[in-house]
Amino acid sequence: MGELNEKCGVFGAFTASRYAQRLTYYGLWALQHRGQEGSGIVSSNGTRLLRHAGPGLVAHVYAPEDLDRLKGHMAIGHNRYSTSGAGGGAHVQPILHEEGGFALAHNGNLPSTTALEQFLTKQHIAHGGLNDSGMMVAAIAYYIRHGKSLAESIEAAWPLFTGAFSCVAMDATTVVGFRDECGIRPLSLGRLEDGFAIASETCAFDTVGAAFLRDIKPGELVTISAMGVKSRQVVKSRTALDVFEYVYFARPDSMVMGRKVNEVRRQLGKNLAKEFPLKADVVIPVPDSAIPAALGYAEATGIRFDHGFIKNRYIHRTFIRPTQVMRERDVKTKLNPVPEVVMGKDVVVVDDSIVRGTTTMQLVDMLYGAGARKVHVLVSSPPVKFPDFYGINTPNPDDLIASRLSVEEIRQHIGAESLGYLSYEGMVRATGWPKSKLSTSCFDGVYPISIGERAQSVAVSK
User: Fold this and answer.
1) Which of 8, 167, 203, 442 is catalytic?
2) Which pTM does this prediction carry?
């Protein structure tokens, strides 16, 4: 299952017009950072479902004639991010189940599919070659075949979904949004002039002109139809949002669980300044996700902030590239140092995380190559010591440099003058939420939703 794990962006729209697919298209543009290897849209005109999907960025997948063909008053969309292998066009969503007359788009990952496999086997439903999302669809379809509505079928299959899921689904008349009991991944509800929208992040609402209404609660199922919006709390909520949404993944202009991501990241930088008040000539960020933290650090220390790297914005995010060779190639193409900013200077470079360490080592080398006198590396999160099983590309503990090396050993490996990580307490404090409301599994190895048979690999890494 390692090659099928994914973390993605989802969007859904229900409107009075026949242009829901265009709203979904623009919503997926806003969510491009959450998945860059494939994109898809399924729409409905009230009687039948139509699908278009393919590998690549949103701009490459949809031609004007594709969107014209998808004309309808409701639609859901998906941007795919694969964690390893299975890239390109493999497993692009939404998944359209023709016989069941519905489609589903899944953000997250089910670390254990044992319950699903046993259920499908018992019902004599073939599932070889299906990933976690495909098995979810097969289970929902079983209940639809037995006379239940889409929402009823999702609720009936819910106990089989062991892991993280923030999903949108639809049939010919209804759009549905639902989240796992912990709300590991974000999902929100917005109001359009003539309908409603569901999105992984609120930044998508700004793009399509929707007003943010509220987060869909962990364990909640929301249905949107001609009858309006209805809600059902399927399982009891026990909130544990993945803190990595604040640290790295979410767009800074999004609101995640009532907190502006940009402000949380600034506070991460300010807390970093309290813990590591260095003397230097300039503070530079690793663009783009570390910019707010670097600004917060510069503001708190009084050290001048500047942009020491120029980013080629046509290169994908390196952390979510599926192979090491591709990541290493992308770093050199993606970022160029600015010599006049760093030459002869003591530089503090702020990054949001160090996962494998390869990128950081290359960046430090670039800065010294551009004439920096000293390069201090500060990280606005603690060491990533444990694998993630809820959708981030860290499936193997051996890939995590902090699980193998001490901070001093990492400093030597990347070649920095000094290296400092924000403390666990400093990170949690910056979110404004207590630890009990967050999933911090990458940092402490505590998984709020069972990871089943994967627990053995964590025990070994501990």
Assistant:
1) 8
2) 0.91
